[in-house]
Amino acid sequence: MVLVSAITFGTLGIFAKFAYIAGLGTDQTLAFRFALAAIGMLALAMALGQNPLRLKRNELGMLLMLGAVVYTAQALTYFIALRSLTASVVVLIAYIYPSLVVLAGWLFLRRSVSMWHGLALLATFAVHRIHPARRKGDGLCSRRRSQRGDHVRRGDCVLRTGRSPA
User: Fold this and answer.
1) What is the distance between the alpha carbons of residues 98 and 144, in angstroms, rounded to a whole number?
2) Is the entire prediction scored with pTM above 0.70?
3) Average pLDDT of the chain to the nearest whole number
4) What are the domain boundaries of the chain?
5) How far is residue 97 from each of residues 39, 67, 79, 134, measured CA to CA in Å?
């Protein structure tokens, strides 16, 4: 299950970019994603012999609030960011954000950072690196080399640079 989760979260930005290329809007893409996730979670619960409706009323209310408000807001901002940034930059920002919060707390609020937190921050920034975006007119993203209707080339350009060649 961990491997399936990692694969689906890892490809989420790529599939969202392809949905945008196909003409879907942010709300449609998000609704499609949540519908697929609900079907998958229900199938998993049935395969494991669990009944998701067996929750207590207060637990169900808390889970619905977290899913309908908190997680939807996070997913919506992620999908909106994918409309204007490359998938790799959005993922980088999303997953390096906790480290940035710790750094901002240390810089602006004078909060102390323990040795373990400092080592974790160093490891986080050592692992992450930003690739420079390709220049306009370079490679597959060149307007003169791209042909209208070539969705594979166009999709590759949008995924890597965040802009359409046509």
Assistant:
1) 41
2) no
3) 78
4) 1-84, 86-129, 132-166
5) 30, 21, 16, 24
Q: Evaluate whether 121 touches 103 at the Cβ level (below 8 Å).
A: yes
DSSP line for 5-65? HHHHHHHHHHHHHHHHHTT--HHHHHHHHHHHHHHHHHHHHHHTT--GGGS-HHHHHHHHH
- Output the pLDDT for position 7: 86
- Three-state SS for 35-50 is HHHHHHHHHHHHHCCC
Mean pLDDT, residues 68-83: 90
- Choose between 80 and 122: higher pLDDT: 80
Do residues 130 and 92 lie in contact, with contact meaning Cβ atoms separated by under 8 Å?
Answer: yes
